[in-house]
Amino acid sequence: MRTPGAQVLAEGRAAAPASIHQTAYLRREAARSEAEVKLRARREGRVTYHAHVGSTDWSTTAAALREIEAGLAEDGEVCDRFGLTLSRAMSVDEATRGSLHKETGPALRPEEWAVLGEAAAIQPHLGDFMIGTPAGATHARLALAAGVTTIGNLGQYWSFEVPGGQDDRQVTEATVRAVGMLAAWRDRGALVHSYLDDGVAMQAGSYGSYVGWAALERHVVEDLCGARLAHSYGGLVDDPWHRAVVHLAVDDVHDREHLGSMVYGDTVSMRPHDHAHNAEVLRRYLTVDLACQLRRPTGHAVHPVPLTEAERVPTGAENLEVQRVAHALERDVRCSGAVVDWDRAERLAGEVAAYALRFRDATLALLVDDGVAVADPVEVLLALRALGLAGLEDRLRLPPPRAVADLVPWKARQVRATVAGLAGTVPDLRGTRVVLAVLDVHDVVRDALLRTLPRAGAEVVLLPSSATPASVVHAAIAEDADAVVLGTYNGAALEVGRELRAAVDATAYDGLVIMGGRLNQDLGGDSPVEVTDELRALGLTPAATLEEACRLLGERAHGPSRPEFT
C-alpha cells in the first residue's frame, strides 16, 4: 500500500526529538545550531574549517579530534566541524548490521551517539549512510537528539543500495521521514546535507545539468518538504576554475541565500605516496575555495584533505598538519589580489544557473507528462531515482549553451580518457560473456568497462551495486559467463573474496573471477591493510589496473574452452 507523501512527511515531523543537545562546540560559540554559527560567520566574513575523520572505531576517532583541537589551540585557531566517515553498516538498523561486510569507518553503538559532540569542541556532521538509507529516519532522530544539526546525505539516496538489495519505496519513505524531522527543526537551524559528488550529479555531461540536479534537490527538500538544504561539492571537482563557477552557480540557484555544509577537498587529484604533489593540489584548490568564501560567503567550511588520504585513513596528526596549512593560506589569500577573473566567473555562473533552472523546470514538466504526482515528495524522489541524471539528459534533449557545455565534470572526462587510454590495448573478446559488478558508488571503472568491453566484442551483464558476492556468482552461472569482474573499494576486499570463494565452491563455477578496486581489508587496526596476496591464495585473480583486467579477459577468451556443466 502506498502512503501519501504528505502523510510520510507528517510522520517524520511528529517523530522528531523533543529537544536537541547543545554540543561542546555550540556552547563555546553560544549558538543553538551550526547554521547559526554559519550565518554569523557569513556576516562577519569569517572562514570556517572542516576535517573529515573516520578511524575504525569511535574511541580512536575521538582521540584524533582532541589532537586536532589541541594543536590548533596552540596556534590560536579552531577547526569548526568534522565529518564522521561512517561504515556502510550504518545504512541498516543495528540489529541487522552483522549481515554486512566490516568496512572502513565506525558504526556507532547506542552509547556513542550521546558523546558525538563532546569529544572536542568541534561540531559533528553526519553525511555517510544516514539520510537516503533504510535506517535513515532512525539515525536522523538519534543524530538530532545528540546535537548534530547538519545531517545527510541526500546524494547517497540516488546512488546507494544496501548489499543484497532494498525496497526502494521503503527507503524513499524513510528518507522523507528523516527530512521531515529536520523540517520540524528548521527554525532551530537544522540542515539537510547533500553531497552532489556522491550522487547522480556526477553522471552529468556538463556542470549545467550538475547544478540542475542541485536545483531539483532544492525543490524537493525545501518546496515540497519544508526543510532547508545545504549543498556540498568538491571531492570530484578537480579544476580550480570549475570550483569557482560551481560555487557561484549553486548559490545562484539558492537565490544567493545558500547556507552550505562544506566544500569538500579535491581528492581525485591526489596520488598515493606522492606527498609533494598532494601538497601542491592542496594549496591549489584551497586558494580558490578560500577566495570563494571571501568573494561570496555561503557558510561552507573549507576542507583541507590530508596528504595521505589516497593511501589510508589519515591520522589526527595528519589532519592537524593540513589544517595548519589552510589557516596560514587564508592569511595569504586575504592579502593577495584576485585569484580568478571574478567578473568572468560571475557571468559564466549566471549562465550555468539559468540553464540549471530550465533543466529543473523541464524535468518537472516531464514528470507531469509521465503521470507522476509532482506535489508528493515520495513519488518525485522515486521517479527521479528511476530516471537518473543520465536518463534525464537523454530524454530532455536540452542542450546547454556552448560555454556551459564546455564545463565538463571530472567523471565524464575521466571515463572518456580511460576509454581512450585503453583503445588499441584491449584484446579481441568476441564470444566472451562477462558479469560486471562494482559493489559501491565508485562507478568510473564500471562505466569505462561498459564502453570498452562491448567494443572489443564482449557481451557484458551489469549487476547493481547492491549485488552480493554470492549473487554475482549465481548470475555468472545463469548467464553462462566466461568471467566475473568485481570491484570493491570500502575496506572489505578479503570478506568479499571469501564469500566469492565460498560461492564458487558451492556452485562449481569454473570461470575466471577478477577482483579490482581498492583491495584492502579492515582488520581492526588504525587503517585497512592490503590483501592482494590473500585473495590470490583463495584462487581469485586480483587486477591492479584496467589494462591488466582486460588482458586477463583476453587470455581467458583465447585459452582452452570451458567444459560444459552437466
UniProtKB/TrEMBL annotation:
Against SUPFAM superfamilies, the record matches this protein to:
Cobalamin (vitamin B12)-binding domain
User: Matching InterPro entries, A to Z?
Assistant: Cobalamin-bd, Cobalamin-bd_sf
Q: Which GO terms describe its molecular function?
A: cobalamin binding; metal ion binding
**Signal sequence extent:** none
| Limits of the B12-binding domain | 429-564
> So which domain of life are we looking at?
Bacteria
Task: Write down what this protein is called.
Answer: Methylmalonyl-CoA mutase, cobalamin-binding subunit
Q: Which organism is it from?
A: Microlunatus flavus
